Amino acid sequence: MKIGIVCYPTFGGSGVVATELGKALAKAGHQVHFITYSQPQRLDFFNENLYYHEVNIPAYPLFQYPPYESALSSEMVHVVANAGLDLLHVHYAIPHASSAYLAKQILAAQGIHIPVITTLHGTDITLVGKDPSYEPVVTFSINQSDGITAVSDSLRKDTYDHFKITKDIEVIPNFIDLDRFNRQKKDHFKLAICPNNEKLIVHTSNFRKVKRIDDVIMIFEKLRKLLPSKLLLVGDGPDRMRIERLCKDLDMLSDVRFLGKLDAIEEVLSVADLFLMPSESESFGLAALEALACEVPIITSNAGGLPELNVHGVTGFLSDVGDVEDMVKHAAYILDDANLPTFKANALARAREFDVAKILPHYEAYYERVVENS
Ligand code: GMT
């Protein structure tokens, strides 16, 4: 098939999933055209089936807010018509679903039919999309999509609960490329961070409020009193400065390192003993799946789709949002040398269930169904 993929090209989970999906589709022989405002971060290899089309947004003094959606729709129209696409697959509803709707109408007026699939990823539904400033457009454009997917049962339910959706939503979970995400031997790195064989705790995120990084700090503050440990924080975002100040105030900076945004996240995960994700809301938890693939057990909240990934007592533990004490108790249990090897093995076994080779056929089958029925 010839597939157009529209996504945010930055570090966010939806952009990562969209890019990895496009790469896997290209490897499977499909022709994939990325349509984004800059080159997707993970589009890091050459394949004869991959194309990248940049959306140009010409500046004009009148535009306080450059009309990105119009430029995106126009680029979709050009690519669909010129490359003869069979399908447009847009990731994250805002504004991609409404831009795709407009492109579809313009193309229809030219006698070209293009089916549109919208994949809902998380905050487009649970946070931003619910805002009255966006809600009518989000509801309308989701309903106008020829196919809708959500990354977990929980997100599917949230979508029906918060929006008047009249169509079926297919659940296709996040997936992982185990060729890239696997535990590598990085002893020198571990020794540099944990010179006295301390346990290494990792958190990766975009440092937004929804991630509850204060909880990560409070869990670690209590944990390091129970056993020698270090904390690595990977990523960047609005909460980073405040969290750095909090660590300084708690006199923790000797045990906590802020690594900022990193491409080779699998190298950090390769030396980790435990991953923390105490999020307020999390539709799937791709970062936690990346940890599992590197044999790192996970302590997560039970928000959103996390119970669909984290098997309580097997791959890690689930706690109520904000229950720091419970998370500390579970973290100490996992990190006990008598328990850690079992949790590590279980983590890998669970990650294998989300291998891209297993999930890709679900997307391909869904594409065929949507194209046939639209
Ligand atoms: O808020 C984020 O973490 C970024 C966001 C995105 O859409 O870029 O991530 C969401 O999509 C990921 C991929 O489907 C999911 O694994 C994340 O759980 C989800 N984040 C939230 O729901 C908070």
Give structural notes:
The chain has 374 residues and is of the alpha/beta class. β4 (87-91), α3 (93-109) and β5 form a beta-alpha-beta unit. The two termini are 15 Å apart. The chain folds into two domains: 2-175 and 355-373, Glycogen Phosphorylase B (Rossmann fold), CATH 3.40.50.2000; 187-352, Rossmann fold, CATH 3.40.50. It has a seven-stranded parallel beta sheet with strand order 3-2-1-4-5-6-7, sandwiched between helices. A six-stranded parallel beta sheet has the order 10-9-8-11-12-13, with helices on both faces. Helix content is 43%, strand content 16%. The radius of gyration is 21 Å and the shape is elongated. α8 packs across α12 (324-335). Ligand GMT binds next to α1.
Question: What's the arrangement of secondary structure elements?
Answer:
Layout: E1 2-6, H1 13-27, E2 31-36, E3 50-54, H2 68-83, E4 87-91, H3 93-109, E5 116-120, H4 123-126, H5 135-144, E6 147-150, H6 153-162, E7 170-171, H7 187-193, E8 199-204, H8 213-226, E9 229-234, H9 240-249, E10 256-260, H10 265-269, E11 274-277, H11 286-293, E12 298-301, E13 316-319, H12 324-335, H13 340-352, H14 356-373
Parallel strand pairs: 1-2, 1-4, 2-3, 4-5, 5-6, 6-7, 8-9, 8-11, 9-10, 11-12, 12-13
Helix pairs in contact: 2-3, 3-5, 8-12, 11-13
Bound molecules: ligand GMT.
Ligand GMT binds at residues 12-14, 17, 92, 121-123, 151, 174, 206, 210, 281-286.
Give a quick rundown of the structure.
The chain has 374 residues and is α/β, with parallel strands linked by helices. It has helices at 13-27, 68-83, 93-109, 123-126, 135-144, 153-162, 187-193, 213-226, 240-249, 265-269, 286-293, 324-335, 340-352, 356-373; strands spanning 2-6, 31-36, 50-54, 87-91, 116-120, 147-150, 170-171, 199-204, 229-234, 256-260, 274-277, 298-301, 316-319. It is elongated and about 70 Å long.
